[in-house]
Amino acid sequence: MDLINNLSLGFGVAFTVQNLMYCFIGCLLGTLIGVLPGIGPVATIAMLLPATYALPPVAALIMLAGIYYGAQYGGSTTAILVNLPGESSSVVTVIDGYQMARKGRAGPALAAAGLGSFFAGCVGTLILAAFAAPLTEVAFKFGPAEYFSLMILGLIGAVVLASGSLLKAIAMIVLGLLLGLVGTDVNSGVARFSFDVPELTDGIGFVVIAMGVFGYGEIISNLSTPEHEREIFVGKVTGLMPTKEDFRNMIPAVLRGTALGSALGILPGGGALLAAFAAYTVEKKTRLRPGEVPFGQGNIRGVAAPESANNAGAQTSFIPLLTLGIPPNAVMALMVGAMTIHNIQPGPQVMTSNPELFWGLIASMWIGNAMLIILNLPLIGMWIKLLTVPYRWMFPAIVLFCAIGVYSTNNNTFDIWMVGAFGVIGYAFAKLGVEPAPLLLGFILGPMMEENLRRALLLSRGDWSVFVTRPLSAGLLAAALLLLIIVLMPAVKSKREEAFVED
Amino acid sequence: MKIKSQKDFFSGLMFTIVGAAFALGATTYTVGNGARMGPGYFPLMLGILLAILGAVILFKALVVETADGEPIGKWAFRPLVFIILANLLFGVMIGGLPSVGLPAMGMILGIYVLTIVSSMADGHFKLKEVLILATILSTASYLAFVVLLKLQFPVWPTFITG
Predict the structure, then answer these.
(1) For residues A208 and A12, what is the distance between their CA atoms, to the nearest angstrom?
(2) Helices marked H in A36-142
(3) Is pLDDT larger for residue B122 or for residue A38?
């Protein structure tokens, strides 16, 4: 009955007028920015983060979670209507969703995505609530060696998902770890790699990296590709309700997607993207019912399954963050940053020391999902209008939000110079074909990894075998090794490359 | 020796140089040993690792055949320069440049400058449109960030507000 008690505590926190409002604003803003093509959840959260600075911690996190879901939802709207994935996890939604829209069935496609996501979100929230407490127990058994190995597993997991070269993705993680070390070393007080710049002794701000690389870097690469005529289905969205036949096809797909998404989301490095790919592949493998539209030509299952999966995955990927304090992907890395700004150290202690925050956040996730359904389906006309706004009016606004956001983090112009530099670096990354997401993850984990490595080796008196002699740690490292071996197997390797071609 | 993948060649080069630089920098701090790690230990390890990874990527770029040579392609200097310049000018406007005695001009003027300069990143610059956009953005930002969220910004030039 703990679960019920905890959840009611959570709903008590979340159902205050103030928190409901922040949840709503978060969802609205997230959808607003998420609908814009080419702006993924990472850039959206980074951009909107400053809007939460002035709020109390619970409200800020609730709003951020709302922004995250909103951005995900907005991304699928763009995928269906414009044939452009707003973010990587809706890449597969594009395939069948856009075909449905072309056949005049944009309404049912959007409804399938929305209802599927809502159902998946509910299940994900329940799983999160149920697993959080026992996992936190496990987390308290973790020593520094286990944490270090867990982070290795998380980073390897994240790399496995990066599209393109595995080697380059690992190199980006290491680069991220190194950038994370810039600033004062907590143990010795030595300012590392700061070049006697006083602002650098505090380290590089993660907002600066996120906005520079993801915000400016993306705008510059978007502008450098000539604007092709986008086909947008304005005014064609009539009749949102899927037919009975649609529902019959949809429901099993949603169930399968939710199950897959929930499971994959928990894995370190897993999360929304892998979940969506896996769900679509599973649907494609199942037999078509007589009279059903083939995949790739507008099958509603091809929308419902990946959308449910990515939402369930998005939900359960909060589990490693909230219980272990380890972000499994770039979005969660941003959440860690946001929590730190509000003086909350993510980890197992949050649940005991800050139960209102913990359970309030979980409850508000469910509320956020409900709000998104209300927000998205009736307001779809508004989002479509937004899609017709020319990009030349849009991008100066995005540049402005990035600049204001960066400045307001510390009220310091030094951050603005830094974000400019990282914008150039981000564009260079795009040109060189290296993915920036692993960099951000490494950046957040850098100081944590060093600290745990240092402690683990201090306890073992410098003996490196501690990582393989402690059973939990050895298991985690073995899992990481297994992941690497699986990805490097020739059969999987070619499949993986195939899967990312659609990117 | 011919470069088989331009993207990999230059990214490998970048990782090697950056890794080596970090490793070299780390040696100027106390490195220590496993049991008593100094501030240089972890960065030294990572720097060496990055340099090795970069070297492997570099080597592969010279050896493994690719279909089209994976060219980096043309750099889009126009958006790059104008977007970054808009950002930097916004910083100058909001903070001023004390080193040359330029006072802070505040957020509102900063938004106009940022909007005008960043709009030039795209080939279709129309001054009237851009000015309307800047007016909308500055009004909205003032209401959202200053009035509603109460963030601390210098809104107007310091020589007016004092």
Answers:
(1) 36
(2) 41-48, 57-82, 91-102, 106-141
(3) B122
Which of B16, B33, B63 is the C-terminal boundary of a domain? Answer: B63
pTM, two decimals, is: 0.82
List, for residues A85-95, the tens digit of each pLDDT value. Answer: 666 667 788 78
Q: How far apart are CA B54 and CA B17, in angstroms?
A: 8
Q: What are phi and psi of A297, to 5 degrees?
A: -120, 15
Residues B57 and B10 in one domain: yes
What does the domain layout of chain A look like in residue ranges?
Answer: 2-501
Neighbours of B68 (CB within 10 A): 7
Band the pLDDT of A501: cuts 50, 70, 90.
very low
Mean pLDDT of B94-103: 80
**A142-201, pLDDT tens digit by residue?**
888 988 998 888 888 777 765 667 888 899 999 999 999 998 887 788 888 888 888 888
Q: Three-state SS string across A245-310, please?
A: HHHHHHHHHHHHHHHHHHHHHHCCCCCHHHHHHHHHHHHHHCCCCCCCCCCCCCCCHHHHHHHHHH
Tell me if A232 sits within 8 A of A81, measured CB to CB: yes
Contact flag A224-B133 (C-beta cutoff 8 Å): no
Regarding whether B89 and B50 lie in a shared domain, the answer is: no
Q: Give the Cα separation of A183 and A205 in Å (integer).
A: 10
Distance from C-alpha of B87 to C-alpha of B118, rounded to nearest angstrom: 8
Question: Cα–Cα distances in Å, from A129 out to A125, A133, A162, A272?
Answer: 6, 7, 29, 19
Listed residue (A455, A476, A457) closest to A466, CA to CA: A457
Tokens of B150: 């109460």
As given in the structure block, the two tokens for residue A97 are 């969703």
How far apart, in Å, are the Cα atoms of A405 and each of A50, A274, B102, B136? 5, 30, 23, 18
The confidence score (pLDDT) of residue A502 equals 42
* Average pLDDT score over residue span A266-292: 75
Mean of pLDDT values over A110-122: 87
Mark yes or no for CB contact B114/A427 under 8 Å.
Answer: no
Distance CA A374, CA A317 (A): 24
Angle between helices A355-376 and A106-141 (to 10 degrees): 170
A 172-201 near B (Cβ less than 8 A):
174-175, 177-178, 181, 185, 187-188, 190, 192-193
Look-up of token digits 């990143």: B121
Residue in chain A closest to B142 (alpha carbons) equals A404
Chain B positions in Cβ-Cβ contact with residue A416 (cut-off 8 Å):
87-88, 90-91, 94-95
Contact list in B for residue A219 (CB cut-off 8 A) is 79, 83
Q: Which range marks the domain in which residue B34 is found?
A: 6-63
Asked if residue B101 and residue B54 are part of one domain, the reply reads no
Domains contained in chain B, number: 2
From CA A384, how far away is CA A350, in angstroms rounded?
40
Are A399 and B83 in contact, with CB atoms under 8 Å apart? yes
Per-residue model confidence (pLDDT) at position A493: 64
**Among A29, A223, A465, the residue to mutate for chain B (most B Cβ within 10 A):** A223
